[in-house]
Amino acid sequence: MRRKSKGFIFIAVLFSLTLLLTAATAFAWFARTESKREAARENILKCRGAAEAAADIVGEMIAADRSGHDGFDEALYAPGGGIRLKIGEYDVKVHITPLCGKMPVNALLLPDRVTVREEYRYAWNSIWEEMEHDDLALRVIDFIDADSKQTLGGAEDEKNINRPLADLSELKAVSGIDDGLLWGGREHPGGIARYLDTLDGQKININIAEAEMIAKLDPAITLDTARLVTASRLSSPLKSIEDLRRIPGFPAALATKLANVIGYESIFFLLETNVSAGGGTAARNYRITVRRLENKCIIEKWEE
Fold this sequence. Notes:
The chain is an alpha/beta fold and 304 residues long. It folds into 2 domains: 2-99 and 267-303, Pantoate--beta-alanine Ligase, Chain: A,domain 2, CATH 3.30.1300; 111-194, Orthogonal Bundle (Ribonucleotide Reductase Protein R1, domain 1). 39% of the residues lie in helices and 15% in strands. It has helices spanning 2-63, 118-130, 136-144, 179-183, 211-215, 223-235, 241-245, 252-257, and strands at residues 83-87, 90-98, 103-104, 196-197, 204-205, 262-263, 268-276, 284-292, 297-303. The longest helix is centred in the first third of the chain and has 62 residues, at 2-63.
């Protein structure tokens, strides 16, 4: 009987030891996992801090640019270039792209938020015609204008936001607009997003606009003429109406007509930012949109 008791005790001790070892192993695994998670969370926060600091530094560089134009001929915005910074333990690379090269859809309407700006009317209709959906031009106007009165040829329903767009993706609430039409497909690469954005600037920076966008501004501008503009600005940046008039083939009177929609500088800039610490620590990437003010830039949008 005693032998059996001793056997049971021995087995119980072994079982207890096994449970203790299993628990200790599980706890050690949990502790290591939590430690890694905490380190990852700390890295994320530090990377964000480094990216914000870089945005401040680069923003000051952008604000200090007094060249009178913003284009890819400038070293600050040159394709393939960028700014390298050391912020604490992190290496930060920032590539700057001037924005405002597309038609600002939220500037389509006058301050009454109902009347279409005449300078943009042709461009607006041309964009939808190219997409083979000219019927949507008026529907979208009804979608974003401030009243609930239906435009002839438009459409008013409960889905209409009747306010400026926060993001182009909101247009998918309009019947007939899907991802293909919005972002592009085989038939229409780039979709309407190639020509439109929701930045609240009033003018298109002609120093960065694509030739196809420039050609949309007026029927007097052919695609060949627009390409002359994009070629000319590489060697001689555009800073005024006079510079535009000097381009061979560009209708002189048109420069004045489009003065309210053509600009030469950008208000917004995209900072594509990479933050890394080395040593196997995961790098982080950010897309930061900043708005240029008088002597600094402020963050308008943050994506990661």
